[in-house]
Write a structure and sequence with these properties.
- By secondary structure, the chain is an alpha+beta fold.
- It has one domain.
- The protein has 3 helices and 16 strands.
- β11 and β12 form a beta hairpin.
- α1 crosses α2.
- The termini are far apart.
- The model has no long low-confidence stretch (mean pLDDT about 85).
């Protein structure tokens, strides 16, 4: 299939998903997107994720999409040669170091990472199960990773299809910020997954899984509380030194009734 046809097909898919989500919202049927018949154990997303914001460039919406940090600093760009090209490149900003090449086709979707030898080429497939439709990929640990459709969580799946023994650990989440615009918030638990893997795989789902028709009830970014500082662990030598520096106060009362203090 030619690049022009694939790009046009993906655009049609995205438009269809957007229209379908918009219709479900207004028919009060959005819960169908979150249909979950699984009895798996859910581990919630951390309280202290890292926030990223994926937004179209105002001057070049079809070919240039930017990624910002929570403080507004641009970190990455997603670029393609033309609006008829299904292949995107993810680059750091401002260094313009290539991170990944992303293929968002009508049938084939994949990510080739250029700086991660342990993952390299990764296919992104579509699966239907007790959790509804999801986009699935694997990394070097062998576990299954899935982007869900309704809740937009990235989940690491342990013992898939194991019913009560299945464990789904939520390690990232996406939220549409403005309806009918490619403007997403991506929360990533960087202790559980590489930020670039989460962003690159989420990027494919923005076009082929989620669309931009959801009614946005947000008034701003998700509040993330400050992460408490961990107390430094003291070595045995430091603890012994503190014990040696303890002050012992001795109170003596002599026969004449005078009280004296000694260390």
């Amino acid at each position: 299939m030619s690049s022009v046809i694939q790009s046009a097909a993906v655009s049609a898919i995205s438009t269809g998903i957007t229209a379908g989500t918009f219709a479900l919202e207004h028919l009060w049927l959005r819960d169908l997107l979150d249909l979950n018949l699984s009895s798996a154990t859910i581990k919630p997303l951390t309280t202290y994720p890292t926030a990223f914001y994926v937004r179209q460039d105002r001057k070049d919406k079809e070919r240039n999409i930017k990624v910002f940090s929570a403080d507004g600093t641009q970190l990455y760009t997603f670029e393609r040669l033309s609006s008829h090209n299904p292949v995107w490149t993810m680059q750091t900003f401002p260094q313009r170091r290539e991170v990944a090449t992303i293929m968002i086709g009508f049938v084939s979707r994949s990510v080739d990472f250029h700086n991660k030898p342990e993952v390299a080429h990764r296919e992104i497939t579509t699966e239907f199960g007790f959790n509804g439709m999801s986009r699935t990929f694997y990394v070097s640990d062998g576990a299954k990773y899935q982007w869900t459709t309704g809740s937009k969580f990235l989940e690491r799946v342990v013992n898939p299809n194991g019913r009560t023994e299945e464990i789904r650990e939520r390690i990232a989440k996406v939220k549409l910020m403005r309806q009918f615009r490619l403007d997403f918030e991506v929360l990533v638990d960087e202790e559980q997954i590489d930020r670039e893997i989460a962003l690159a795989t989420a990027f494919t789902s923005m076009f082929t899984q989620w669309g931009v028709g959801e009614v946005t009830k947000t008034i701003g970014p998700t509040f993330i509380p400050p992460k408490p500082l961990a107390e430094p662990v003291k070595s045995e030598e430091e603890e012994d030194e503190e014990e040696g520096n303890e002050i012992v106060l001795v109170v003596e009362n002599d026969q004449e009734g005078e009280i004296t203090f000694q260390q």
